[in-house]
Design a protein that fits this description.
Protein-Tyrosine Phosphatase, Chain A, nine-stranded mixed sheet, alpha/beta, six-stranded mixed sheet, 15 helices
């Protein structure tokens, strides 16, 4: 019965949302890919905000429910029947009565299983598509026959682009570049590659008053050079979201100064390599939103970037990486081998993450430098006692491992809790 009701609600909400799109005809930018979608969506919306009246997906609303909720402009009702009535009332009013409406939608789209994006594309079609990254082993691969099938699904929105419409991609993403060759879309790239249209050079941490407070880099666009600073987050991936946003803005006719001005309002979303003050003078890299192999490799690089500035102790707290199916064992093992070279203390959370610990031990990491826990709740008190001045702590794990609870326990001040992911009443009760 619950599945039937969910299907009915999704169909009705999707039908109303599709009608709203047809009625108001906003331009639509779709952001897809395996990693970095939410950061990129937020950055794109900020870059376009000076010219367009923009509405963007809230948080990570990227499903057959999340996209219609964004189109309507309401929060998720969760399981509240009264709130669902209000959602349908708002959608009905927008669909059938005159109203003001944004002229630009920036929609994050994602897939948990085959066909998810086809459902979303029945609701709205893009005027531009941003592909963040299509890694070799994507998240959600356990629901698909092969990694290539996941990449094909995530690239699916690009196939809806007519000739000359903008397709914005990571210049180092060989899979997206290869798939784009089939299309007549107008491509634009971003990244560190010398061939990127928006090229990132000299990436480094941004320091103020002796403290690392973000990232900075130079952007090369044609013959122009611009300084880019991204506060509150660390690691090279933090620069990709604003670079993608500038590429998107240019593709839609904005100037670089207009895009950069809009980006002054951009803040990285919670749980995405946010740099926070930890207990006892430690530094936290809170990357607790989710975890995939590609994102974890980048997170370990970010840990070394921050710690390497002053040769600080590197502590990696790594939880299970879920939804990897038959690739789970080898990918956890690969991360463990990498962690043995890039951390001084490794803490694992969850059953699958034991493979990270085993591989790190096999790779030569001392047994005394590895600690294993079943849950985040078990690990948090130990870490709170262990960390101190000169420690940089990376916290990362898949959503259901709830590693944000570890970050919360390690914060030096409760005021920083507002920067954490999954802090709503509904999430706190799970």
């Amino acid at each position: 019965m619950k599945t039937l009701l969910r299907s009915i609600f999704a169909s009705v909400l999707g039908w109303l949302a599709a009608g709203i799109v047809r009625k108001y005809k906003p331009k639509i930018v779709m952001v897809t890919g395996s990693v970095g979608k939410t950061s990129t969506k937020d950055a794109v919306a900020a870059a376009l905000s000076g010219i367009y009246l923009v509405r963007k997906s809230d948080k990570s609303y990227n499903s057959e429910f999340g996209v219609p909720l964004t189109i309507v402009g309401v929060d998720s009702p969760w399981a509240n029947p009264g709130a669902w009535l209000k959602v349908f009332g708002e959608a009905f009013a927008l669909r059938f009565f005159p109203s003001h409406y944004p002229n630009m939608l920036v929609l994050e789209v994602g897939a948990d299983r085959p066909g998810d994006l086809a459902k979303i594309m029945k609701i709205a079609l893009p005027d531009a598509v941003v592909v963040t990254k299509l890694p070799e082993v994507p998240v959600h691969v356990e629901a698909y026959p092969t990694p290539a099938a996941v990449r094909e699904e995530e690239f699916y929105p690009a196939y809806a682009l007519d000739e000359g419409m903008p397709l914005i991609m990571n210049a180092e993403d060989e899979y997206a570049i290869a798939m784009s060759a089939r299309l007549t879309a107008r491509t634009m790239t971003f990244g560190v590659s010398e061939h990127a249209d928006v090229r990132i050079t000299q990436p480094k941490v941004h320091v103020e008053d002796g403290n690392i407070v973000g990232m900075e880099a130079l952007l090369h666009i044609g013959s122009e050079e611009h300084l880019l600073t991204v506060p509150g987050t660390v690691g090279q991936p933090a620069l990709y979201a604003p670079a993608a946003a500038i590429a998107t803005a240019i593709a839609l006719g904005l100037t670089v100064p207009e895009a950069l001005k809009g980006l002054t309002s951009y803040a990285p979303p919670p749980g995405r390599a946010r740099i926070l003050n930890g207990k006892n003078g430690s530094t936290l890299i809170d990357d607790s939103y989710n975890a995939s192999p590609a994102a974890t490799v980048e997170a370990l690089a970010s840990l070394n970037l921050v710690a390497g500035e002053r040769k600080l102790r590197r502590i990696a707290v790594l939880g299970d990486m879920l939804e990897l199916g038959r690739y789970s064992f080898e990918e956890h093992e690969r991360i463990g081998t990498l962690a043995a070279r890039q951390t001084d203390l490794l803490v694992t959370i969850g059953v699958r993450a034991r493979g990270i610990a085993a591989a790190a031990l096999e790779a030569g990491m001392p047994e005394t430098s590895i600690q294993q826990f079943s849950t985040s709740e078990e690990a948090a008190p130990m870490l709170a006692e262990l960390i101190g001045k000169g420690d940089v702590v990376l916290i990362k794990g898949s959503q259901s491992i709830r590693t944000e609870r570890i970050t919360e326990a390690l914060l030096s001040t409760s005021e920083d809790q507002e920067h954490l992911v999954r802090q709503s009443k509904q999430w706190k009760s799970i």
